[in-house]
Amino acid sequence: MKNMKGFTLLEVLFTLAILSILITLSAPLTISSLAKHQEKQFFQTLQFDVMLVQNLSINNNNYIRIKLNDKSYELINGARSKPIAIRNLPKKWYITKQNLDTISFNRDGSIRRAGTIKITTEQSSYNVVFPLGKGRGYINIDKE
Question: Where are the alpha helices (DSSP H) in the chain?
Fold first, then answer.
């Protein structure tokens, strides 16, 4: 019996307990990292959509705009109300239209109506500001 090599039951249980504690501690870090990546991806998509609407407004005669809803936004082409694309917000996110319900640009690339929208996520709130001029807007983290 003394020549047999291996681990005792107590050693295996101790190792498994340490492993389970490490896994339990690393899970919340992964979830918050995933949420931050989701926020980054959403705002990157929003910026690309705003740039698309601005470029299409310069090159087309159609009235192209982004219509904001509470849980999504739509890219709409022309006077038709049929959207080109609908972008849904993740769960527990919402848009507050402070003084802007559509984002659209003139033929020279300047914004038609300046304003601000607030996007609230699970982690924080962001003010997306569209100033007068040819800029596409910028994002501020709302410190509350």
Answer: 9-59
